[in-house]
Amino acid sequence: MPTQPLKDKTALITGSTSGIGLGIARSLAAAGANIVFNGFGEIGEINILTASVAQEFGIKTAYNGADMSMPEQIAKMMAEATQRFGGVDILVNNAGIQHVANIEDFPVEKWDAIIAINLSSAFHTTRLALPGMKAKNWGRIINLASVHGLVASAQKSAYVAAKHGLVGFTKSTALETATTGITCNAICPGWVLTPLVQKQVDARAEKDGISNELAKKALLAEKQPSGEFVTPEQLGALAVFFCSDAANQIRGVAWNMDGGWVAQ
Ligand code: NAD
Fold first, then answer.
1. What is the Cα Rg of the chain in Å?
2. Mean pLDDT over each residue of the chain, to the nearest integer
């Protein structure tokens, strides 16, 4: 296998300034793809990040700070990526947020934000990426869903609804592209220790009056039989596999990597 199988491809990963998105961006860069980063953060730090990934892997990088809850900003980002790199060959819909509350206490604006960022943004990027992918008859769309796209947890209604929606959208996209060289699949991680989950660890430690380490163990013990976190690097390796020729006939799956969560 060539060491850089994705050389001359361009990957756009939403929400790649942190956590899983950054892990996937680094794995795709290691496989030779040029990377368009997106996500929030301090611009000086982001510039250092994009330059260091470009240098480490000998690829080109760009950054667009579009807010994934804003369709017109998404459209500008997709147009800019096409202008700069001639199209988006690999689209990873990863940006996501979480809010934990009972349904009757769930802030309406949080519900709207979660649906917009975790679900609707994937529709906007996908509808704008597909014409270019169809013209080349090659493309990979990878949607970062969650085990919460397959099963539910209490107090996460908006997140569970958005992620189940994203799994459904993945299947529709896969069917509409079934006779082309474009595939669309979802990845469904269990617990991954990123800033998104660290907030839930902190809340648990405070609520139960326990240490951070014990709060992590308690969180894992409840849902994830392996007792270990999934890592962004492991998820990145799965994304690279989905981009390979071996994965040409993997279409419309929701592939969990979850330490056994959904096997229960
Ligand atoms: P994270 O908080 O570390 O990273 C989220 C990224 O999204 C950041 O780059 C952030 O800047 C960006 N982002 C947030 N709101 C945005 C917006 N409006 N516009 C553009 N970018 C925005 O979170 P993470 O844990 O790496 O999560 C990444 C994805 O993986 C999410 O979709 C999440 O639901 C999913 N996921 C995470 C876990 C987990 O255990 N961490 C498990 C399953 C699924």
1. 18
2. 97
